[in-house]
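Annotators were shown the component list below and the corresponding predicted structure, then asked to write short factual statements about the assembly.
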Amino acid sequence: MYLPDFEYYQPKSLAEACRLMTKFGSRARILAGGTDLLHKMKHEQLAPEVIVSLKGLKRLKEITYQKGVGVIIGALATQNDIAGSALLQEKYLSVCEAAHHMANNQIRNVGTLGGNIVNAVPSADLPPILIALGARIRLMGNKGERVMPLEEFFTGVHSSVIEADEILTEVIIPDQPSTGSTYIRFGLRRSGALAVVAVAAAVTMEGQTCRDVRIALGAAAPVPMRARQAETVLSNRVITDDLLEEAGVCAARECSPRSSIRGSEEYRRDLVRVLTRRALQKAIKEGHV
Amino acid sequence: MARTLTDDQGIKRYLVNLKVNGDTHTVMVKGNALLVNVLREELDLTGTKKGCELGDCGSCTVLLDGKPVNSCLVLAVEAEGSEITTIEGVARNENLDKLQESFVNNAAIQCGYCTPGMVLSAKALLTRNPHPSETEVREAISGNLCRCTGYVNIVKAVLAAAEQE
Ligand SMILES: Cc1cc2nc3c(=O)[nH]c(=O)nc-3n(C[C@H](O)[C@H](O)[C@H](O)COP(=O)(O)OP(=O)(O)OC[C@H]3O[C@@H](n4cnc5c(N)ncnc54)[C@H](O)[C@@H]3O)c2cc1C
Ligand code: FES
Ligand code: FES
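Structure shown to annotators:
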């Protein structure tokens, strides 16, 4: 399998990368890890005339903590960078776990956070847990930069609010009161299989009372979605097993999965119910965020 | 970034220095050249296999700076500046590596097609973690499919090699 011809650029700065993207517009594509882009080009689903590689922008690989801001993960951090980051393991172990259980080892060594987000597919593994943690993203374009909640980024399968000249530079996980979080994915195999359904939850508990909760579903709608009705079921209530089941039922009702080779709509809805309950149970019990 | 040359037909080629198994090779490639094809066709390193060519099977695994990656999804121009290890670089002076010996001794090779990738994934694991558990071994080779399904002996071979360390 060969790739069609294209012109290749490896800009040395973000500004130069944005300039190139402005110049070539929809004729160009950003290349990060390439695990999705090159895959699509081989299948002739995409045939960009120009490829702008981010490889030269090493700074976008960093994972840092900035006081008052939160944990900042560069868009070029690979899934294995994230899984192995001591900082993330200490602060947001559930993000490391989400990264560690996706794709396979070879893919995780090159696939990036930015690619996983901008790709905008319903089964992407990193968006749900990041949304549950209230993450924001920074987009850099020709006209300057903007920061927005990750949750508002997606508009449909393979579509988002990103402009042709924009580059996702980082994801910011703000400091938070959450007492526990978790990400559970269900795949048909433990490796190299996309999620059939995935559920992320972050809870703020005060004794047995749930003060705040965010639930995000993967592969359960055209975009990663918050299960807001399920959240309402739990908010400021004393948590019982029945209440968690009720939240699961609620999430299953409000999501809109489609039938595909990986699972029928009915099956996915029932998975949402079960996994929502389990994710909440785990997040409540878990001693880490 | 590599030097470029444009031919009469306006096609751009890149002069890329690839550091493979300790030697530097200078190759002239188009932007769309995949690392797996350059290794196999330009450098005659045909130990790196092609299976799915889509990142699923791991036959094309090479180490980039010690980490296993699928060379069917890497552009050759992007491999410049990295240390590349292919299966040809695992044996030293005609002597098989202990890990390779262990594959032979434990009958971990049937048709052999997945073996280069398996050995490199396992090699990367043992370098990072000389005494892995069985779970860690299985995890490390989880991106390598063996169509002959010889996983039991492959895992045994990696664990046996680790024991000898
Ligand atoms: C075998 C296999 C298994 C996989 N398994 C999983 C899985 O289990 N879970 C999962 O979620 N995904 C999976 N994937 C999909 C893919 O590997 C991941 O989504 C990966 O994170 C994509 O990142 P990348 O850097 O390789 O993206 P690329 O292919 O480089 O880019 C993807 C898209 O995003 C754009 N882009 C990338 N970075 C930026 C940026 N910083 N700013 C603007 N645009 C950008 C590109 O232009 C392109 O359109 C799998 C892929 C393969 C081949
Ligand atoms: S040939 Fe590269 S992963 Fe299958
Ligand atoms: S030995 Fe035949 S594919 Fe593994």
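Statements collected:
1. Chain B has a mean pLDDT of 96.
2. The domain at 3-89 of chain B is CATH 3.10.20.30 (Ubiquitin-like (UB roll)).
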